[in-house]
Amino acid sequence: MNDLLTSQYVAYELAGEKYALKISDVYEIIKMQSITPIHNSKPFLEGVINLRGKIIPVANLHKRFGLGNYTPTKKTRIVVVKSRDEMIGIVVDKVNQVIRFSDIQPPPEMVAGIDGSYFEGVGITDEGVISILKIDKVLHE
Amino acid sequence: MASIFESPELIGAFIGEVEEQLQLLENNVVELEKNGGTAEVVQELFRAAHTLKGSSATMGFEKMKTLTHEMENVLDKIRNGLLEISRPVIDVLFECLDCLNMLKEDFVSDSNNVKTEITPVITKLKEISSENETNNQNSDSDKAENLETGRREQPIFVLDEKQQEQINQALGIGQNVLVCEVEILEDSQMKSVRACLIMNFLNEWGTVINMVPNVMEIPIDSDVGKVAFLVVTQMSADELRQKVQNDLMDIKEVRVFPYFIQNSISQTKDGETGVRDKDNSSGVKTATEEKRVVHTVRIDVDRLERMMDLVGELVIEQIRIAQVANNLYNQYPSDETIDDLIGISNRVSILINELQEGIMKTRMIPVQQLFSRFPRMVRDLSVSLNKEVNLVLEGGETEIDRTIMEEMSDPLIHLIRNAIDHGIENPEIRKKLGKPEQGTLRVTALPEDSNVIITVEDDGAGIDPQEIKQSAIKKRIVTEQEANNMTEQQLINLIFQTGFSTSQKVSDVSGRGVGMDIVKTHIEKLNGIIDVETCAGSGTKFIIKLPIKLPLTLAILKGLLVKISNETYALPMNNVVEIVRKPKNEIESINGQAVAVIRDRAIPLIWLHDYFGIPRGNERKNTLIVLLGIAEKRFGLVVDELIGNQEIVVTNLGSYIGKVEGISGATILGDRSVACILDVVGIAKIVNSRKVSRIDVEYSKQ
Predict the structure, then answer these.
(1) Contact (CB, 8 A) for B250 and B241
(2) CA B280 to chain centre
(3) Active site includes B217?
(4) What is the CA radius of gyration of chain A?
(5) Model ipTM?
(6) Is residue A87 part of a domain?
(7) B484-496 pLDDT, tens per residue?
(8) GO CC terms for this protein (chain A) (predicted)?
(9) How does pLDDT run across B120-173, given as a tens digit for each residue?
(10) I need a labelling partner for B463 at 20 to 30 A (CA). Which of B288, B415, B452, B555 fits?
(11) In chain A, how many domains are there?
(12) In this structure, what DSSP letter does residue B546 have?
């Protein structure tokens, strides 16, 4: 838990809910760009993008969690994370800020309709609670 | 001493040389059997045996040395006209080859423990050479002294370039080139000296260009019976004979007749003018051959391979440099340094291209190297199957990447075996059918753009689609219903199915098909295309189209960019057979499978739209079809737009995405967007899926 507390987090939004990723997992945050679809692959794989000459996959967490699809807006971002030695982008509706948590509590059984096992825990801030995703588990399992 | 020669490099070089010389020997023995021995062929055989003797002696390989030494003796006799080329001689020579091959194998596995026995072959060699000697002597006395037999029994002179030139010049100024055969009296003393004296006499009346045997080199006390001189002179044949008979002593018999330049029996009919042309060309050939020998370097294939890899990486990095330069230019359009960078990048790109071409060229070898394995194989096979086969090889000079050639070796051997085994009929049957008793097997190679077309064609029994159909149904490769719906071409293509090859019974019924799936797999691997043309009763032709060069790395390919709906996809250009537009009403449905007739062939069509779950494109009058081919399969991909072709860098999709059916990778296009590369083999697999190839109901109504 100590490690979780000292880390910095990137806070972002998916379908109106607030989530966070450990900053050490985040490689880069880029603006939304055109995504080339890969049909007949993983159901929540949005497609691939060109990240400065590298082709990387982009996952759709809305689909992953059954949140109903996103509509790209000016604020839509692709957060590129490093997961199991591979760079993978995830589409988020909005990136808020980099934060620290004063307290982190273990996740309840369900978080905003999503199985609690996908979360490291729930971080407490002045503005409310933010769920911290286990990104490896979300993307790979 | 021995330890020096145990270094792997030396052994490798030795084995390489042995293999080369063995191949040379084999080709020439086959040639000897087919056309009788021309002076060149015999000379080349002799040279190859001699080279082998030399190098095996250096390596301390006693057995090979002894065997080649004995071969040399026999060949020397043939060369000097002391031994006639006959069936037993050829057979023994073939035996020697097999023995040498075994020796080589032994040497490779353990150079200190060579088990192969050479004594039996050596005994045979010795028998041959002594037997024929006596035969020769007997037949000599029987020889009629007429000109015709003189021609046929002309000894073989081995001429060098200078001597050829002399003959040509003499003929040019109207002098005669004569062969003067002199038999020295048996009781004459010091016959070799007598022979030298004859030579001196002849030199007074003309010029002696060559003689067999060479009287200057034989030991002084050796027993010379007959000497043949090649003389350039103003005198006619009769004049010269008269003179020799009158002016010289100790002579039993003299024969003089005009020299025929090509010594082979089959070519004695040639007119004299024709002969001279031939002579010139062979002179030129030896000259170029000599040059080639001097300028050749043996390189380990692994080193070439490594260089290929490096150049491949260089190309990819260069493309990235160009991309970065472009990005920079977009960001800072007015910066002159970036102009310089783009200039350098372009120049480097040209240099890399040249380097790439150069390395590619070093890997190219003439198809002849592959072809040269066939004559022996065809000979052995036709002898064992009791068939008469005339093998015609064409286009051996066509060059192709060595890896591709190696990969093609098995499939071609398979096709040739099949053609002889199942295609070409027995001589008796052929006679009944009114065909020439000797079947013809034609193997050709022809360059076409960046491809090479290899054909294997026989004039045998052909393939009967109905028989294929019956056995395919019996083998449960297709159901009866499916088979009834198939076109003849589709039925014939069933021979490429895996099931067809495994059962001997099926192949007996169908007469074809053992291992055809192996042929197919190899060709598919090389990204080639195979076609079968067959006509029951009159033969079969396999047409194989292969890339001449291997892709430098799998990372770069020539791609055709197309749009499916509004998504861009790349197709490997190698698999694109052609692009056609078909009016919508020419697309028919056969059992729910959409089909278009392209060049008299019913081609199944695929809408990837359906497979990818995207709407089919806007209705247009014409349907744009990209005809794709892989191995024996052809199918049409319906696309909405053609964008063009370009070199693309293939990137795989990474382990996160993993394998996606129908897609082999992705590439970054000029506008920095990403396009998927379609996998033709994968799409071919889904061709039978009704879902993607049905004519849309509404679509067909219009």
Answers:
(1) no
(2) 26
(3) no
(4) 15
(5) 0.90
(6) yes
(7) 877 788 888 888 8
(8) cytosol
(9) 888 888 887 776 554 444 444 444 344 444 445 566 777 777 777 777 777 777
(10) B452
(11) 1
(12) E
